[in-house]
Design brief:
Arc Repressor Mutant, subunit A, 6-stranded antiparallel beta sheet, 2 domains, about 270 residues, alpha+beta, globular, Jelly Rolls
Length: about 270
C-alpha cells in the first residue's frame, strides 16, 4: 500500500479574477470540471488525464491547461507523486483580455503544451499574482503574453463540451440551472423524453460522467463561489443542496484537493 501524500496550498491572490494554487500529491482526482480557465506548470513527476482530446500525459516543465466546464480527471503516472502550480482565471477576465486579439471564435485550449516560452510567462504571472501588491504593468503584460501564446499555438477547434443529442442537452440544462434543487433520474428522463436507461447511457457517453456525479460537481462549484463570496462552509453546504457539511467537505476535497475551510482562508 502506497501511503497517501497530499500537500496543497491556496495562495492569496493580489489580482482580481485570478486564483492561485500549488499542489504536490499522489491523489487521483475523479472526473470533474471547473468554472474557470486553468493554466499552470507541472513542477515534478508526471500525470495522466482524460480530457477533451482524449488521454494525455504531462510531465515536469509542461504547461497544463483546462477550459471552463470541461470534464477531466487526473492521476499520477506510476506510484510517484506529482506537483503543479496553477492559476484559475475567471472566463469574463479572459474574454476581456483577448477581446482585441483576433482569435477566430471561442477560445478552447489544449490540456498539455510543451512550450518553454509559454511556461516562462506562466511562471512570471504566478509570481505577480502571489504578491500582495502586484506590479500592474508586469501582471498585465504576463497575462496578455500567456493568453496570446495560448490563443495562437494551443487552441482546439470547436467547443470543448459539445452536446449532440437533445435529450442529454435538456437534462444537462436542468441540472445546470438549479443544482441545489433535488431531482431524480426518472424526472430527468421524463423531461428529456427518453427512458432512464437511454438517458443514463447517453449522458455518460456525451458528458463523460453520470447525471448524479455531474450534479455533485455542479454543487461543489457552487460551494466554491459561495465561499469566495464570504459564506461559511455550513451555509454554503445548505445553499448548494448538500445533505450536510461533511458530505459537502468530502466532495469538495475530491474535486479540488483542499478543504472548504482552507480554500476560504486562502482567498480571504
Amino acid at each position: 500500500m502506497v501511503p497517501r501524500l497530499h500537500r496543497v496550498q491556496q495562495h492569496r491572490s493580489g489580482v482580481p479574477g485570478i486564483e492561485a494554487m500549488t499542489l504536490y500529491s499522489n491523489h487521483s482526482f475523479p472526473r470533474h470540471s471547473h468554472d474557470q480557465f486553468g493554466i499552470g506548470i507541472m513542477t515534478s513527476g508526471a500525470q495522466r488525464s482524460w480530457s477533451v482530446v482524449g488521454q494525455v500525459e504531462s510531465e515536469a516543465g509542461d504547461v497544463i491547461m483546462l477550459n471552463p466546464g470541461e470534464m477531466h480527471d487526473g492521476m499520477p503516472a506510476g506510484q510517484v507523486a506529482r506537483g503543479w502550480r496553477i492559476l484559475y482565471l475567471d472566463p469574463d477576465l479572459v474574454a476581456r483580455e483577448i477581446a482585441d486579439e483576433e482569435t477566430g471564435g471561442e477560445l478552447i485550449v489544449r490540456p498539455v503544451a510543451r512550450d518553454p516560452q509559454l511556461a516562462t510567462h506562466v511562471v512570471r504571472l504566478f509570481a505577480q499574482v502571489e504578491r500582495r501588491e502586484p506590479d500592474c504593468l508586469a501582471t498585465e503584460e504576463s497575462l496578455l503574453c500567456c493568453l496570446m501564446l495560448v490563443s495562437r499555438r494551443h487552441r482546439v477547434g470547436g467547443p470543448s463540451a459539445a452536446i449532440a443529442s437533445p435529450p442529454v442537452l435538456k437534462a444537462k440544462q436542468r441540472l445546470d440551472a438549479a443544482p441545489e434543487v433535488p431531482t431524480t433520474l426518472a424526472e430527468l428522463a421524463a423531461l428529456s423524453g427518453v427512458s432512464r436507461f437511454q438517458l443514463l447511457r447517453g449522458f455518460a457517453r456525451e458528458v463523460g460522467t453520470t447525471p448524479h456525479a455531474y450534479l455533485i460537481q455542479l454543487r461543489v462549484r457552487l460551494v466554491r463561489r459561495l465561499l469566495a463570496a464570504g459564506r461559511s462552509p455550513a451555509d454554503a453546504a445548505l445553499l448548494a443542496g448538500f445533505a450536510d457539511q461533511s458530505h459537502m467537505t468530502r466532495a469538495f476535497v475530491r474535486q479540488f484537493g483542499i478543504t472548504p475551510g482552507r480554500y476560504r482562508a486562502g482567498i480571504a
